[in-house]
Queue: 2 jobs
Job 1
Amino acid sequence: MLDNGMGNRICYMCNEEKSGGIEVLGNYICRRCEEEMIRQDLDELKMEYYKNNIKSLWKNRFS
């Protein structure tokens, strides 16, 4: 997680510099990606992308 000193950080999901959002296992997820994850239907292709990234967070944390 990178911080530019002005409160902006790099989002783990979209790789864009943003402010506001959540931290999951020490990794920042911007508000836009958080909201997209919440709105996605479980059978949508984009949800697979989010699920794989969350799995990656867990693997990186506990490997």
Job 2
Amino acid sequence: MSADLRHIDTWLFDLDNTLYPAESLHMRLVEERMTDFVERLTGFPRDDARTLQKKYYHAHGTTLAGLMANHDVDPADFLDFVHDVPMDRLVPDPALKAALKRLPGRRLIFTNGSASHAERVLQTLELDHLFEATFHIEAADFLPKPAPETFAKMIADHAVHAPGAAFFEDSEKNLAPAHDLHMTTILVGAHAAASTAPFVNHRTDDLAGFLAGARVQDAAA
């Protein structure tokens, strides 16, 4: 049965592994660069550097937040380094482009990635013209999702009415604060069907198909 999203006028999308499939392994390139950064910073063997990287990710929400808290890392240096990867694993999806275009109201990106990374990814996917703005990690003062303060800042910066917003994410934990704010939450990805989280309203492994089939207000111009 198609999702009833006729009450939605603001569409919030995570970027990585949401607007393109995780199976592209694009984020693996970024994660390898993160390990490179931690390895160079600490002098640890690579396996130990990767373990520390993952520890910071789970404890702080992003590897960057952990590095800033524990190593006084300059966030700009980190972001420039880890996002310096080729875009050749990302392929435009005409079906997703058409499904996004039909959505009424505003479309925004809400990502823990950097502004420049979001710009490169959206341009590569040929979706940049479909989004009004990007709320990125710099705009969040480097405090990542799922921090409630970051949701509050995104809402304030872009005048989002939370009950009229839908949030699409591949990370289950990032949907919990959205649900608390009375947003409609959609978990995206091959793992979505297995989720039993009560704060997830919809689950899909086919974002384009989900959007194309959803009941929405009058189609966007």
